[in-house]
Amino acid sequence: MKQKRTQVYFEQETRKKLDHLARLKGTSMAEVVRDFVDEGLRNEKIISDASGLMELVKLAEKEAWGGPIDLAERHNDYFIEAFKEEPSEI
Predict the structure, then answer these.
(1) Would you state the pLDDT for residue 90?
(2) What are the tens digits of pLDDT across the range 32-68?
(3) CB-based contacts of 10, cutoff 8 Å, min separation 6
(4) Of 28, 41, 66, 74, whose CA is between 20 and 30 Å from 20?
(5) In this structure, is residue 85 part of a structural domain?
(6) Over the range 34-58, which residues count as b (16 or more CB within 10 Å of their CB) and which as e?
(7) 42 & 57 share domain
(8) Average pLDDT of 80-84?
């Protein structure tokens, strides 16, 4: 993996925590920061991938669908059913 040098500024307390964590892990502070950034970007992708659920909400509002009382427990089942019925609208 090709890396590009990047300069980042941290508050003094954050820098101390990163240094401490790096010592505990036996690695560099740069590696700790890269790990945190990579994890944050993975989490961001998970959030952005949830846009399909927002489309389901829009469809429910458009259809004035109040929803079943067990929606919280079975939301995945309902999402799959909706996708099978009208995949182009979701």
Answers:
(1) 47
(2) 999 999 988 887 766 666 667 777 778 777 777 666 7
(3) 18
(4) 41
(5) yes
(6) eeeeeeeeeeeeeeeeeeeeeebee
(7) no
(8) 80
85: left (phi over 0), alpha (psi -120 to 50) or beta: alpha
55 and 80 part of one domain: yes
Residue 59: left if φ>0, alpha if ψ -120 to 50, beta else—which one?
A: alpha
Same domain, 19 and 30: yes
4 located within any domain = no
DSSP at 66: -
Domain count, the chain: 2
Which residues span the domain enclosing 69?
A: 51-89
Is 7 within the bounds of a domain?
no
Residue in the structure block whose two tokens are 């004035």: 64
Quote the distance between the C-alpha of residue 58 and its chain's center.
21
